[in-house]
Each structure stands twice: as structure tokens, then as C-alpha cells.
Amino acid sequence: LVKYITSYKNHDAFLAPCLPSNPWETDHDAYWTLNMRRVEVPTKMRVERWSFSLFELLTDLRGRDDFKIFLKKEFSGENLAFWEAAEELKWGTASSMSAKAETIFKTFLAPGAPRWINIDGRTMGLTVKGLDHPHRYVLEAAQTHVFMLMKKDTFFRYLKSPTYKETQKKALNPEAHNFSSAQLEENARNRSTGIHPIILWQQEEEEKAKAAAAAAPVDVKAVMSKIDRKK
Fold first, then answer.
1. Is 191 in a helix, a strand, or coil?
2. Within a 10 A sphere around the Cβ of 117, how many other Cβ atoms?
3. What do you get for the CA distance between the two ends of the chain, in Å?
4. Residues 158-192: pLDDT tens digits?
5. To the nearest 5 percent, what fractions of the chain are helix, strand and coil?
6. What is the C-alpha separation between 47 and 62, in angstroms, rounded?
7. pTM of the model
8. 20 to 30 Å CA-CA from 67: which of 45, 54, 124, 155?
9. Are the beta carbons of 9 and 16 closer than 8 angstroms?
């Protein structure tokens, strides 16, 4: 508990000031803007938090993107890709579960799979058998195994890598805002409604869907069929 508090005390808004200012106290939203989910340049406090644990790194989408860059350079991104696929299955819609489970099997678990993951035989056997009747947590054992592999090896190599050090170097260290009473009153009058995290997530999913659609091969027959119907 002491170790945890020592690590996180400067990241707790009740124990330490937010930089550049606490939006709940000042009605100024710079803190939110600097800490958006996939901001291009993160803050130093945010990058520091990634070093606390692999869980912190993967929970932060910006940190996960940075970790992917490192794994790509090492040609070892299949474990993280599987972990993400397991998360999508866990939190996705019930209607898409069977299709996602089949894709995961063909991509990561089947003999000769393009991104085959190295897990022990017992876990592999239980996972493959469970995929005959997929449910949200059918990949839990395999996902935990892969997470522990990354935690024991890849995570610590990432923290020592040029990728992480370069991100640390570029990270922002915002100056503290010092608002007068009159400015705080002005901020309160100009207060704007923030965007709900769920709406932000929906916007990101829409952007990803558009990008995937743009990258997908064009079905010429379907396009010609639509043109014919319009005529």
C-alpha cells in the first residue's frame, strides 16, 4: 500500500495539483485537451504513469499506441494484437461474437496461423475447445497468459527502449495556471459542456470503421449492381 501511494500520489487530483489547472476548480478545460485519449504529444505525467505497470500502459490508448511502435520495430506484435482481439470479444456485441471468435482462431491459434501466439499446450487446448461454443470470456486464460508474458519481458524492454525515451523527451510539461478571482468567475460564466467519454469512443469507432472501409478492396460487382439499379 505504501509503495502504491508513493507511486501514485502525484497523479491523484486530491493530493497534488493538476497541470495546467484542475478543471473542476477553475472551469478551464486545458487539462482535458492535453489528456485526450489519443493526443499526439502526451504530458510528462502521463508518460511517467505508463512505467508504473503494463496494465497502466495498455489501459491508456496513447500509451498502447506507443507500445505498438516498439513491438513493430521488434517484429513481435502478435501478443498485443491477440490481447486486443480478446478485449474486443469480451466487450463486443453478442451478434458479432461467433465471427470474431473464428477470426481470432484463424489469426492466432490455428496451426500455421499468420500471427500464431506461443502459449502452453494446456491453455491452448482449453482455449481452442472453448471456441467451439464461444462466449465473452472464452479467451480469458490465454489472454492472461499472454499478458504475463508481456509483463515479464516485453514491457521492461520497452521502458529501456529508444521509443519510450524519445516519447519522454518530447512529452509536454504544462505551466501551472494562476487565475485571479475575477478570471475564475469569467471561466465559470464561459463554462462549456464537455464531451461525454462514450461519445468520444463512438466517434473514434466511426473513424476506425471509415478507415477500414477505405482500405478494403472494392467489390466491383456490387458497385456495378448499384449503378444498374439507379439507372
1. coil
2. 19
3. 71
4. 999 999 999 999 999 999 999 999 998 988 888 77
5. 65, 0, 35
6. 9
7. 0.79
8. 124
9. yes
